[in-house]
Amino acid sequence: MSADQTMKTLVLKGVGVSPGIAIGRCYRFDPLDSQISFYKLNDASLIPQEVLRFKKALKESEQQLLEIQKNLKKEKVTEPVYVIDVHILILKDKIFSNRTIKYIRRLGVNAEWALRMTLDHYKQIFEGVKDAYISSRVSDVQYVVQRILRNLSGEKNEIVWEEGYDGLIIVSHDLSPADTAQMKLDKIFGFATDSGGRTSHTAIVARSLELPAVVGLDNVTRFGHTGDEVIVDGTSGLVVINPYPDMLKRYEEKKRHYDAAKDEYLKYGKLPAVTLDDYHVQIGCNIEFVEEIPSAMTHGAENIGLYRTEFLYIYREDLPTEDDHFNNYRQVVTEKNLSWSTIRTFDLGGDKFPNYQKQGKELNPQMGLRAIRFCLKEVEIFKTQLRAIWRASAFGKIKILFPMISSVDEIREAKKLLEEARQELLAQGVKIADKMEIGAMIEVPAAVVIADKLAQEVDFFSIGTNDLIQYSLAIDRANERLTYLYEPLHPAVLRFIKQTVDAAHKANIHTAMCGEMAGDPLCVLILLGMELDELSMNHLAIPRIKKIIRESTLKESKILLKKALTFNTASEVRAYVHDYMAKRFPDEFQMEDD
User: Fold this and answer.
1) Maximum distance among all alpha carbons in the chain?
2) Are 91 and 144 in contact (CB under 8 A)?
3) Rounded distance between C-alpha atoms, residue 565 and residue 543, angstroms
């Protein structure tokens, strides 16, 4: 985080996770505002009463969350519901509750004290996980503990709203969907939090509500006080506290421009992504949850280009059943307005293990036993998912995508297991599709080098640029000190992508891209010049990407790509491409430039 203070103005840099400009008054939200008492139970006869008090608070917390879910469904705000399901599962988890009760009984402490000890135990476990996505999930346990503590203390008022604040910027250490569900959303203009990343709950909720949000600010709660004027720039990742008059005026103009452009972009959502010289690019949406599909379609998704299935495993204390998988996938594929749904088999392993799976630590988990490697080792777990995907294929068009492929042997073994699952279902008389397209995810350099060989084994490629960039440039994309090196326009990355697309087209197979790069307006003409068949992205990016494509030509894109490939450094490529795009599409890029 960087900060620059001029008079009373403070500028904080974080991670923009939901685009747009919000200007409003700060409302500092702290779910642990109430004072928590910690004390010993000097009389052993008080222990059963304390256990009952804890169990009562558990039940109250569950009832509150169920009521929140009910209200959300009434208002047709479905996106946060799945996270509240997770919190309810934690409340019902016997391991969680029994550990707290054990502390009460063995140590003779009050429920609040015991509960905080349980939280510390979970924090210690999660801190040992290097994967940023998984380690951030300790927030689920924290949210549940906070709610139980509020009920133990008798504090029922979740949020106290100050009168006179119509446009609020919620400033908090972090937020749960249950917290945001109880807010008066018509009064909220944006979010700014100390913690979080692109996959945090605040990010997911903000995008689903289409409210600007910046997370990972480290100490916005230290500097932002209720009543302060605040600007949230979710596009550039900036938060301004108490802007000076000229800055405020500039951001008000920037907001008007963005809002007008957003309305204009939505018009393009329902239009096909066809260039002026008739080159058609299919536009898909990346999702993690079924609840994201309505918004994806509103913004113009033609298909689901990537459905990540890890969440079915991560939040559970036991393995999901075949029916658990099937019921989920059926919801995805039965949407009649989607051309197809690409289901990626689960990317677990390394340090990405669910609660029930006990594994030894790996020195370098991102390059360890994960994704397809884990699947081929845990065959029965893998085949459970494969059978469910086949069953869902009877209800709509499915493409199956295998992650982190690095050899022909891996794809052949995965196909063999897929065929075994098919034969098992046919033998049972289960109705399934006659065939299913099989894809390999290209996200490691080895897959690029042998792309011509892999292309003979599959029906399509999907380029996962998030990992491809990470592995190609030998950087940890979750390491804040190395973010300056994470460059999609690096010459090596561009060559890897082009090599992959060329190998696929030579073999007459479809090539998609599902990494963040696919939804980056700066990169769209470069990718267009490579003649990718499909770009799959976050739903908010779709209308803008379609607009740029429809106002471009394949010919000019090829010229831009050819020139970009002549540069020796990433900075040279970025400077040239940015200059070209800013001149070619001044309205599109004005909102990103100060």
Assistant:
1) 83
2) yes
3) 28
- Angle at the Cα of 111 (from 159 to 65), degrees rounded to 5? 40
Question: Which residue, 48, 51, 95, 503, is CA-closest to 317?
Answer: 95
**From residue 508, how far is each of 344, 458, 461 by CA, in Å?**
22, 11, 11
With 0-12 / 13-18 / 19 or more C-beta atoms within 10 angstroms meaning exposed / middle / buried, residue 184 is exposed
| Total count of domains within the chain | 3
Residue 327 shares a structural domain with residue 468: yes
Whether 201 is catalytic is yes
Q: Give residue 329's domain range.
A: 273-590
Q: Which of 490, 514, 523, 539 is catalytic?
A: 514
Say how many CA atoms lie within 13 Å of 201 toward its Cβ: 25
pLDDT in tens, the chain (594 residues): 434 444 478 999 998 888 899 999 888 876 654 445 667 888 888 999 999 999 999 999 999 999 888 877 776 656 567 778 888 999 999 999 999 999 999 988 889 888 888 887 887 787 666 666 666 677 788 889 888 988 887 754 444 444 445 688 999 888 876 666 666 667 889 999 988 876 577 787 787 778 899 998 988 988 888 778 999 999 888 999 999 888 899 899 889 888 877 777 888 999 999 999 999 999 999 987 787 788 889 899 999 999 988 877 765 567 889 999 999 999 999 988 899 999 999 987 544 444 444 444 555 556 667 789 889 998 999 999 999 999 999 999 999 999 999 999 999 999 999 999 999 999 999 999 999 999 999 999 999 999 999 999 999 999 999 899 989 999 876 555 666 788 999 999 999 999 999 999 999 999 999 988 999 999 999 999 999 999 999 888 899 999 999 999 999 999 999 999 999 999 999 999 999 999 999 977 765 554
Q: Check 87, 173, 201, 299 and give the catalytic one.
A: 201
Q: Give 3-state DSSP helix, strand, coil % of the chain, rounded to 5.
A: 50, 15, 35
Residues 506 and 545 in one domain: yes
CA distance 538 to 308: 13
Q: Cα separation of 491 and 503, whole Å?
A: 18
Cα separation, 223 vs 564, in Å, equals 42
Catalytic (active site) residue 514: yes
Specify whether 62 is located in the same domain as 172: no
The CATH number of whichever domain residue 12 belongs to comes to 3.50.30.10
Q: Does residue 88 share a domain with residue 11? A: no
